[in-house]
Specification:
The chain is α/β, with parallel strands linked by helices. 45% of the residues lie in helices and 18% in strands. It has seven helices and nine strands, in the order E-H-E-H-E-H-E-H-E-H-E-H-H-E-E-E. A six-stranded parallel beta sheet has the order 3-2-1-4-5-6, with helices on both faces. Helix 4 links the parallel strand 4 and strand 5. It is globular, with a radius of gyration of 18 Å.
């Protein structure tokens, strides 16, 4: 098992990619701290891990609150000794036409997707430096961070910021032998896509389900999130679900 003896924090670990990563990390022997703003979702994932013989802890955490970040790292240390891996995944999605985009939406997206990501990364990096841990930090970006989209300006900008912070952190942490990498998934068939599809239906005047179908057809393999591999770290996706993310 590749991660035996390691402790991993997975933010947004209660659903979608975060859930899949938590389950696979546990399969690879990691002790998983599943952190999510919805504690019930984190607890359900931990139940799955434990029922398969793994070790995990559920934490209620809002990445916009520094106290929650600090408490999560402290709880991970108390339960498992130290933090070796951070899968920095918590994020939200919103969209609107550019001329209708609000300050409130801007603030929500940047508070969670950028500030939350950065200060979680900073806190875990500080923990690793203090304890001399040659750890791994993985930030989840998106293909949306590589280009702007007419209806998704704020979200695209937040994911572009994840690229930049990841590059800066990788350079800053290299002298401490801490690896900082990013993953930029394409379109992955998670529960979030129901929300995304509904928003596109509203703003592009489409039937429910049509945008999801069209996006899937535009993927070279013709399926959402199928057969994608990115390394390092690696993410494997099959039948529309992320099934592996191992550093």
């Amino acid at each position: 098992m590749k991660l035996a003896g390691k402790t991993a924090i997975i933010t947004g670990g209660g659903g979608g990619i975060g859930r899949a990563v938590s389950l696979r990390y546990a399969q690879e022997g990691a002790r998983c701290v599943v952190a999510d703003v919805q504690l019930s979702l984190a607890e359900a994932v931990v139940k799955e891990i434990k029922s398969a013989g793994g070790s995990a802890l559920a934490i209620s955490m809002d990445v916009t609150k520094q106290a929650d970040i600090d408490q999560t790292i402290q709880a991970a240390g108390d339960a498992f000794g130290q933090v070796d891996i951070l899968f920095n995944n918590a994020a939200i999605f919103e969209m609107a036409p550019l001329l209708e985009s609000s300050r409130e939406s801007y603030d929500r997206l940047f508070d969670i997707n950028v500030k939350g990501m950065f200060f979680m990364m900073q806190a875990v990096a500080a923990h690793m430096v203090e304890k001399g841990i040659q750890g791994k930090i993985i930030n989840l970006s998106s293909q949306a961070g590589r280009r702007g989209e007419a209806l998704v300006a704020h979200y695209c900008a937040t994911k572009a910021a994840v690229y930049s912070y990841t590059q800066s952190a990788a350079l800053a942490m290299a002298p401490h032998h801490i690896n900082v990498n990013g993953i930029a998934p394409g379109v992955i068939d998670t529960p979030m896509w129901e929300t995304v599809d509904g928003l596109f239906a509203r703003y592009e005047n489409r039937p429910i389900g049509e945008k999801k179908r069209l996006v899937g057809e535009a993927v070279p393999l013709g399926l959402l999130g199928c057969g994608v591999k990115v390394a390092p770290p690696s993410v494997s996706v099959c039948d529309g679900r992320v099934v592996a993310a191992v550093t």
